[in-house]
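A.,

Following up on our hallway conversation. Structure tokens first:
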């Protein structure tokens, strides 16, 4: 554990055990928040890629059914 200090009126004092415990909890929560944010961003990217893949697959299936590019574009805008 790091020797944490606080300043009061320009004088440095060591943090109490309770203050250290609170600070440890705050740092742990900050780490959890950062990891959660990174996971949300990663999932958003995966979702975007999945949507693009499904759209491309749907377009190809319509083309395979015999629709022209113009017809597919009119239907789904791709």
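Then the amino acids I'd put at each of the 78 positions:
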């Amino acid at each position: 554990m790091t020797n944490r200090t606080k300043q009061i009126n320009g004088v440095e004092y060591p943090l109490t055990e309770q203050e250290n415990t609170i600070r440890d909890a705050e740092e742990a929560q900050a780490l959890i928040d950062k990891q959660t944010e990174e996971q949300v961003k990663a999932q958003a990217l995966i979702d975007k890629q999945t949507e693009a893949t499904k759209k491309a697959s749907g377009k190809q299936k319509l083309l395979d059914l015999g629709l022209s590019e113009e017809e597919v574009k009119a239907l789904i805008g791709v």
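The mean pLDDT is 94. Curious whether your intuition agrees with the design.

B.
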